[in-house]
């Protein structure tokens, strides 16, 4: 039975992954916990597709619920670029300006696609990038501003996480190199080959009733967003974080229905867990899922390589960036060292572990925990349980 043939109320739980399912279901026991979905593939087969909780206080989560997953969408956007690289339309070591001539402004003429995809372009600043509280929804204006912006000099000493701008940058490269809009590329390069529709940045109007309500308020600090952002922007060690992720009004923007009207691949991706798990299953399988070749083996080998081990000046950690992904950070002593994926603000995320042939994806509308909305331990715990199950199954 294929995914498309599974009844709307039927879940998938492989007996080997029963402990993972048990852990997941314990996370959603009241409307205050929100809801979520978890999906896993092992060696190309769906072994877990489950959901629980509430999409809103008056609506239960079901098989068709989709969720705003924030930076989780960076992994999907990166995979689009890798698909183009397969066909020679994009080359990792070519200057970005080869595809996007305006990008050469302000001394950026030598910055390569490889550097940009590993957060070394020095264009992390979203704060003040475009005017207006909803300016970030204008993708054309954002692209123009990024092309004109000077790179941060810290780019030469280490990466700086492009929390908001990364998606705009790779989307513009992909669109320029292919001559096709990024929205269409997602449909033809990811959704179409995988046979799954729910890879959305601009969500179709007739599908918006499926979106889970995000809560609580986005601000992860006790002070108002504008005040906190202004203070952090002047605080040594935290300045990069404010510049990258605390643009004016961004807390409102992330909760606004208008967020689903634009293509902002760094943060406004809306997915199901099964869609994400299927994409990462192809990466875990050397580029193949079922009889579909999503990526060539050489491309998969490239995207698994660590591009920089230097400290990230925005995040303050050594993120060990790959080409558009980071490793799976899970609550396990023996980490899956060759894993690639991307987590999102609030707790959603997905990754592939080629060493076990496993992919894992988790989406939720309940951001963080009682202390912070930034993230929490749910996905690291679920990922650890899934990797443990996959290793035992080997």
From TrEMBL:
Stored InterPro entries: Beta-lactam-related, Beta-lactam/transpept-like, Beta-lactamase/esterase
The name this protein goes by in its record: Putative esterase
Signal peptide coordinates: none
Residues annotated as domain Beta-lactamase-related: 34-378
Source species of the chain: Rhodococcus coprophilus
Gene3D superfamilies: DD-peptidase/beta-lactamase superfamily
């Amino acid at each position: 039975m294929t995914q498309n043939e599974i009844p709307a109320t039927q879940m998938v739980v492989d007996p080997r992954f029963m402990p993972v399912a048990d852990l997941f279901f314990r996370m959603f026991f009241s409307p205050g916990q929100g809801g979520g979905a978890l999906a896993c593939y092992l060696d190309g087969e769906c072994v877990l597709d489950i959901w629980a909780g509430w999409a809103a206080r008056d609506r239960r989560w079901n098989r068709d619920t989709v969720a705003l997953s924030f930076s989780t969408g960076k992994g999907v956007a990166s995979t689009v670029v890798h698909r183009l690289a397969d066909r020679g339309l994009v080359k990792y070591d070519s200057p970005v300006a080869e595809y996007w001539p305006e990008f050469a402004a302000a001394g950026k003429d030598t910055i390569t696609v490889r550097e940009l995809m590993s957060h070394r372009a020095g264009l992390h600043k979203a704060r003040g990038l475009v005017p207006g509280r909803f300016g970030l929804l204008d993708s054309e204006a954002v692209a123009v501003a990024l092309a004109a912006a000077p790179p941060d000099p810290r780019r030469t000493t280490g990466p700086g996480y492009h929390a908001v701008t990364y998606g705009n940058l790779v989307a513009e490269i992909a669109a320029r190199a292919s001559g096709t809009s990024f929205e269409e590329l997602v449909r033809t390069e990811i959704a179409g080959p995988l046979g799954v529709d729910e890879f959305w940045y601009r969500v179709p109007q007739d599908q918006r009733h499926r979106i889970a309500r995000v809560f609580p308020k986005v601000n992860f600090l006790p002070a108002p967003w504008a005040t906190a952002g202004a203070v952090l922007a002047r605080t040594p060690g935290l300045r990069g974080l404010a510049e990258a992720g605390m643009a004016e009004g961004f807390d409102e923007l992330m909760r606004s229905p208008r967020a689903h009207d634009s293509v902002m691949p760094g943060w406004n991706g809306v997915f199901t867990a099964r869609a994400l798990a299927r994409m990462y299953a192809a990466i875990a399988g050397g580029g193949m899922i079922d009889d579909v070749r999503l990526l060539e083996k050489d491309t998969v080998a490239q995207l698994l390589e660590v591009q920089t081990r230097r400290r990230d000046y925005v995040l303050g950690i050594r993120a060990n960036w790959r080409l558009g992904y980071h490793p799976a950070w899970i609550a396990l002593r023996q980490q899956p060292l060759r894993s690639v994926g991307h987590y999102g603000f609030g707790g959603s995320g997905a990754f592939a572990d080629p060493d076990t042939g496993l992919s894992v994806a988790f989406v939720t509308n309940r951001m963080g925990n009682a202390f912070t909305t930034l993230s929490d331990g749910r996905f690291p715990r679920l990922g650890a349980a899934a990797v443990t199950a996959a290793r035992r199954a080997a």
